[in-house]
């Protein structure tokens, strides 16, 4: 409805609508999806409103930059050290964390960037939490429609709509997000409907990026890495079928067939691929249900209800334990707002200890 008020071109509306459903098990026709679009364009990059950018060196470089900044201020970082549980004192106050190798790290405050589900259902004893709070965390919508496919290719994709230059140099569209299967919002709705019945979309929504065009160090000379953000794939398949190797490859083949229609020769250029379905995203990265936002971005799970009513201020039912990740207000996205806000609340409490 919002897009119809401002635009007439269906391909343009559908392309913009992808940011209204990205990461969400929702259709462009789902009430409230307009907020997800707002969420993706409300920020700015180097003074340009609504802009996004690539991180030089890949997204891991952003984590490294944050780590270096923290270390320069005296932080100690324990990488590859799984947390077993939050340490609690006799008064129920958070006193640090215990690692799975038995190491205990004592602290006056604990901030968790893990999802609300991991933080409160796995790292904290249930008897220490209000029953209503536990129930709200358990019932949160964490469905994910996302399957991420990372691809290595030996040449640039050559799209029918804008053929490559004779010299093989990247063109402007190679430096942007390329949206496929987005000629109309009805296609997005159709893809959503299939997934809502437990079937991977037969014509999935595809957002294709080629970061190596702007950051050549990501791939050998002449080769490229292609990032495919695709929807819709249900976390749980119909009939209890599992996301086994056959199902994963069948869906990836569907995605590649679609790309081939727009850029003939794409499949022949592929030299490697990595397929991450919702269960893969959950098991590898700890994302509940594979949800990249730590939980749905529907209006009933935003603002004062994120992660649960009365707990949107970053403090948790456990004194000294704070939630600072995407499961907290204002939700997902690479912006750091939740972490900054949580740090301010934690510092305020720390001054009163």
From TrEMBL:
<comment type="function">
    <text>Probable oxidoreductase that may play a role as regulator of mitochondrial function.</text>
</comment>
<feature type="domain" description="Amine oxidase">
    <location>
        <begin position="27"/>
        <end position="161"/>
    </location>
</feature>
<dbReference type="InterPro" id="IPR036188">
    <property type="entry name" value="FAD/NAD-bd_sf"/>
</dbReference>
<dbReference type="GO" id="GO:0016491">
    <property type="term" value="F:oxidoreductase activity"/>
</dbReference>
<keyword id="KW-0274">FAD</keyword>
<dbReference type="GO" id="GO:0005759">
    <property type="term" value="C:mitochondrial matrix"/>
</dbReference>
<comment type="subunit">
    <text>Interacts with COX5B; this interaction may contribute to localize PYROXD2 to the inner face of the inner mitochondrial membrane.</text>
</comment>
<dbReference type="Pfam" id="PF01593">
    <property type="entry name" value="Amino_oxidase"/>
</dbReference>
<keyword id="KW-0285">Flavoprotein</keyword>
<comment type="similarity">
    <text>Belongs to the carotenoid/retinoid oxidoreductase family.</text>
</comment>
<protein>
    <recommendedName>
        <fullName>Pyridine nucleotide-disulfide oxidoreductase domain-containing protein 2</fullName>
    </recommendedName>
</protein>
<dbReference type="InterPro" id="IPR002937">
    <property type="entry name" value="Amino_oxidase"/>
</dbReference>
């Amino acid at each position: 409805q919002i897009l119809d008020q401002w635009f007439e071109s269906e391909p343009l509306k559908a392309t913009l609508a992808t940011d209204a459903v990205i990461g969400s098990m929702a259709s462009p026709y789902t009430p409230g999806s307009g907020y997800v679009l707002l969420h993706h364009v409300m920020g700015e990059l180097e003074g340009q409103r609504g802009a996004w950018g690539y991180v030089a060196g890949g997204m891991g470089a952003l984590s490294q930059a944050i780590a270096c900044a923290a270390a320069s201020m005296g932080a100690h970082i324990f990488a590859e050290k799984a947390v077993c549980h939050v340490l609690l004192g006799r008064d129920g106050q958070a006193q640090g964390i215990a690692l799975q190798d038995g190491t205990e790290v004592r602290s006056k405050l604990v901030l968790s960037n893990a999802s609300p589900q991991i933080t409160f259902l796995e790292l904290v004893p249930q008897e220490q939490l209000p029953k209503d709070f536990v129930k709200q965390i358990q019932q949160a919508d964490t469905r994910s429609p996302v399957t991420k496919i990372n691809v290595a290719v030996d040449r640039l994709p050559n799209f029918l709509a804008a053929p490559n230059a004779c010299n093989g140099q990247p063109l402007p569209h190679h430096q942007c997000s390329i949206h496929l299967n987005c000629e109309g919002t009805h296609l997005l709705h159709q893809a959503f409907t299939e997934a809502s019945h437990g079937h991977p979309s037969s014509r999935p929504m595809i957002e294709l990026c080629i970061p190596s065009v702007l950051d050549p160090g990501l791939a050998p000379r002449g080769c490229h890495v292609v990032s495919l953000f695709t929807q819709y794939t249900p976390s749980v398949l119909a009939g209890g079928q599992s996301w086994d190797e056959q199902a994963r490859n069948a869906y990836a083949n569907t995605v590649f067939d679609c790309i081939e229609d727009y850029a003939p020769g794409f499949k022949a250029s592929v030299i490697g691929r990595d397929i991450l379905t919702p269960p893969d995203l959950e098991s590898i990265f700890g994302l509940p249900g594979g949800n990249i936002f730590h939980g749905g971005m529907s209006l009933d799970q935003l603002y004062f209800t994120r992660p649960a009513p009365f707990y949107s201020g970053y403090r948790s039912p456990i004194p000294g334990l704070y939630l600072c990740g995407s499961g907290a207000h204002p939700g997902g996205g690479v912006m750091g707002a939740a972490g900054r806000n949580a740090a301010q609340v934690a510092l305020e409490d720390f001054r009163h200890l």
